[in-house]
Amino acid sequence: MDHRILAALKYIEQNISEPIDLGEAAAKVRLSKFHFERLFQAEVGESYYAYFKRVRMHNAASRLKHTKQSIYEIAIAYGYGSNAAFTRSFRSFWGVSPTAYRSDDSFWDAETFHRHRHEGVSLAVAPNIQIRDVGSYRCMFRRYYGPYTRLQEIWRDFLDRLPEALRSDDEIEARFLGRIYDDPRVTPPDEIRYDCCYVFADDEDARLQMDEVRNHLVTTDAGLYAVIDNTRDPRPRPEIYAYMLDKWMPSTNYNYSDVPGLEFFAGCPVEANSTWRPVCTMLVPLE
């Protein structure tokens, strides 16, 4: 993906509650509105405004399901000035009102949803969950779209395209993380976002200044996370996240967050994703 569009996506997603028009986004990456609009469509596969609205609507839908926030609070969180404006936008996108969406549990039960997609998803056994304050990480990343079942293929592509200067690291010392955004019960498979990241241990690393690295940098969000070690007895990815969001979080004082979750891989991420039971440490952001 063109690094300027990548920068625009990062800017949009970090400021999703703000009314960012096309001209502002284009100026942010130093392109004319005309060139930016054409390049965005070519790289992302949809218009700037369609993408912006879709991300907002998917985030809002997740909040309706995963929090007890009022519709007004959710409307304000995504830049709408009133319930009415939010409801009109939500209905035009989803075909139902926010209230109807929240109350409809069809296909929302995780075990039912995943039963026809995977085998063995069960929320009966709780994973070991720890709450930690986690700092930020400076990373080189690439954005991918597609179902989580493609993650081994996605990671293989990422490693194949790593700059040579990053390949020289000792395999044991190289650190990789994934940034995970979307609930597959909300977001269609081909629109699911996933960032593959190479983690720099030192903010003064000279390789951060290389053009092929500098144009693909992101800093992960520091904050409070629920942490699950999935390295010893790996469980299916959807099982872990569904348990966290559907069972554990409602029993606590924590809220769903739009900040991407993190998946840390101690070894090769291609091997770690060889099955749908990823060998990694999973971090779910909390509000």
TrEMBL record:
Pfam families in the cross-refs: GyrI-like, HTH_18
Molecular function per GO: DNA-binding transcription factor activity; sequence-specific DNA binding
Keywords recorded for this protein, A-Z: DNA-binding, Transcription, Transcription regulation
Membrane-crossing segments per the record: none
InterPro entries from the UniProt entry: AraC_E-bd, GyrI-like, Homeodomain-like_sf, HTH_AraC, HTH_AraC-typ_CS, Reg_factor_effector_dom_sf, SmbC-like, Tscrpt_reg_AraC-type_HTH
Stretches assigned to the HTH araC/xylS-type domain: 6-104
Protein name: HTH araC/xylS-type domain-containing protein
